[in-house]
Amino acid sequence: KDHMTQLSKPTGNALLENAQNHMPLGVADSYRYWGENNTVFVKHTQGCTITDEDGQEFVDFRLAYGPIILGYRDTRVDQAVIKTITECGTISGFSTALDAEVIALIKQMCPNIEKMRFANSGTEAVIGAVRTARGFTGRNKIVVVEGGFHGLYDEMMWKSDVDNWDSSTQNAPQITSFGTGIPEASREHLETVPLNDFAAIDAVFKRVGDDIAAIVIEPILGNCGSIASSQAYMQKLRDMCNTHGSLLIMDEVKTGFRVAKGGAQSLYGIHADLTTYAKAMGNGYPVAAFGGRGDVMDIISFSKKGVTHGGTYTANMIALSAAKATLTLLNETDAYASINQAGADIQALLSRVFTKYGIAHQFAGPDSMFGVHFGDEVPQNYRDWKKTDSGLYTQFAHNLIKLGVMLEPDSREPWFICEAHKNVDLAWLEATADRAMAEALNT
Ligand code: PMP
To answer: Member of which family (predicted)?
Structure first.
């Protein structure tokens, strides 16, 4: 990621150099390291913009990888949090009335949720959902989809190594870990399949169907360019789980409360047994949850077969007051209409620019988190994504960043839209995208 040399900023570079005395790579999350000259240090955020330590403002389509759904520093949410902190506090290690209140609100928006528990991050929500599914079914195996992401815990730190795979052979790709420090034993119960591949899911259920506790899937791959499960494939997963007594876990950490009130599963009209939520449910405050079928969730208990769940910071008042305010706004205002309109307008202007330069392009996923892919067909899974011109995308993205439009320079990360994007100057954005593409084609 070190080839955006033009981003080099005096203050940012000095801050990185200093931070490297204190943190590996000088950053708190390794993916924030964009190279010695390009690592971004943010001074403040507002609406749909972030401003770096050198004073450059960016219109932000990265939105912290998705949590910002209303806008940065939304006073309606922030005031609710401040009121809670000043009147009630932060944590007590006991229950508050807010716990059930927030879940009742979620149940209004997501009718298939019967019972829930809270968590502090998407990772924790997935850990809770997977453990609950295992406790309920008494089985261990989980099936995940190539190109999906479910958090930073050992079991989910494995991927099907399509990048180093000879697709002409009959053998499946190797399974490799994301880095070292991941014990080999942690992959024992993991199966991976390509999205939208019916034969692959049939084969895995045929082989180990009776051992499968759950399929864990992002219904729309928020970590692979918003490539969506087809309606028929999602129905197939639902049917396979029903037939084999496995559970369907939809990881809606990115899609939940973003793509629609009821998340991606409401777009499919197919219910998960368990669902994980995080990101958009708190507009940037760290809050997460998992839940679904009441009979499944009730395995969380002190009975002999009970699943253990909890945590010091779980359902803290900061997180829950942010969730209550955010969810109320999403439920009661026309925020989704603004978000979807802005997303549609932005795709339309990008499409005009790509067409002008004769670039075959595809949009994937919903208007609130769409993927941009250069190629002749909409990719159906990670293997298809590999065939798109992601190099051109990265160059285009780098040029956009230089010109004040922030996004991840990797086409696997969607463009995230928040309510505050309704104020973006679309003519400026189109002219900027035009310039970024002209320069990308010249390099
Ligand atoms: N699931 C999905 C679908 C995600 O996109 C992410 C994070 N990008 C996670 C889980 C993990 O969430 P967190 O970073 O909050 O632990």
So the answer is: Belongs to the class-III pyridoxal-phosphate-dependent aminotransferase family.
Judge if the beta carbon of residue 64 lies within 6 A of ligand 1.
no
CB-ligand 1 contact for 121 (6 Å cutoff) = yes
Residue 307 DSSP label: B
Is the CB of residue 150 below 6 angstroms from any atom belonging to ligand 1?
Answer: yes
> Taking a C-beta distance cutoff of 8 angstroms, is the pair 357, 437 a contact?
yes
> What does the block give as tokens for 440?
């990308």
Distance 30 CA to ligand 1 centre (A): 15
The answer to whether the CB of 9 falls within 8 A of the CB of 54 is: yes
Q: Is 285 in the pocket of ligand 1 (CB under 6 A)?
A: no
DSSP letters along 200-244, please?
A: HHHHHHHHHGGGEEEEEE-SEETTTTTEEPPHHHHHHHHHHHHHH
**Residue 151 CA, closest ligand 1 atom number:** 11
Q: How much of the chain, in percent, has pLDDT values that exceed 90?
A: 94
Q: Where are the domains of the chain?
A: 75-332
Residue 5 pLDDT greater than 90, yes or no: no
Residue 337 has pLDDT above 50, yes or no: yes
The pTM of the whole model exceeds 0.90: yes
Report the pLDDT averaged over residues 252-270.
Answer: 98
CB within 8 Å of 300: residues ≥ 6 apart: 117, 132, 135, 306, 307, 308, 309
Model pLDDT, residue 4: 67
Give the tens place of pLDDT for each residue, 396-436: 999 999 999 999 999 999 999 999 999 999 999 999 999 99
Any atom of ligand 1 within 6 Å of the Cβ of 123: yes
Cα distance between residue 366 and residue 222, in whole Å: 10
Which pLDDT score, from 0 to 100, does residue 163 have? 86
> Please, what sign has the CA dihedral across residues 9, 11, 14, 19?
negative
pLDDT classification of 3: cutoffs 50, 70, 90: low
Average pLDDT across the chain, whole number: 96
CA of 113 to the centre of ligand 1 (A): 20
* Ligand 1 atom nearest 251 alpha carbon: 3
CATH code given to domain 75-332 = 3.40.640.10
Q: Are 40 and 34 a contacting pair, CB within 8 Å? A: yes
- 11: amino acid identity, one letter: T
d(CA 421, CA 418): 6
C-alpha 115 to ligand 1 mean position (Å): 21
